[in-house]
Design brief:
114 residues; mainly alpha; Arc Repressor Mutant, subunit A
Length: 114
């Protein structure tokens, strides 16, 4: 992954609502979610959600597919894995030790504070 792409991806995620949207889509992978389902899950207005989805789309972190009259948003798992690989590519290089990155799980918030 190119450094500028990594920076753009991280910048897109460096905002609370976009990070929550991305995490909700990760939880719904691979099926994805409609904007209506996302808005209900995150308790966010459709116009706010639309803005954040556009930013995530631009950064390549999500994809959009039309299914009849509905739009389906899915996380770009390949892009996410590339970003994680980029961030951890030099893990433990100086010490020669094996890198065992812990898996962190936390529940998604159901309501976004205003």
């Amino acid at each position: 992954m190119d450094e500028s792409i990594a920076v753009e991806s991280l910048a897109a995620l460096a905002q609370v609502m976009r990070l929550r949207v991305f995490r909700a889509l990760i939880a719904a992978a691979p099926e994805g979610m409609t904007p209506g389902a996302l808005a209900a899950t995150l308790d966010v207005p459709a116009s706010t959600l639309s803005f954040h989805l556009k930013e995530l789309l631009h950064a390549g972190l999500v994809s959009q597919e039309r299914d009849g009259r509905h739009l389906i948003y899915r996380p770009s798992l390949a892009h996410m894995n590339e970003l994680l690989g980029y961030l951890t590519a030099h893990c433990c290089e100086a010490s020669g030790a094996a890198c065992a990155l812990p898996r962190v799980t936390t529940a998604l918030p159901r309501k976004i504070p205003s």
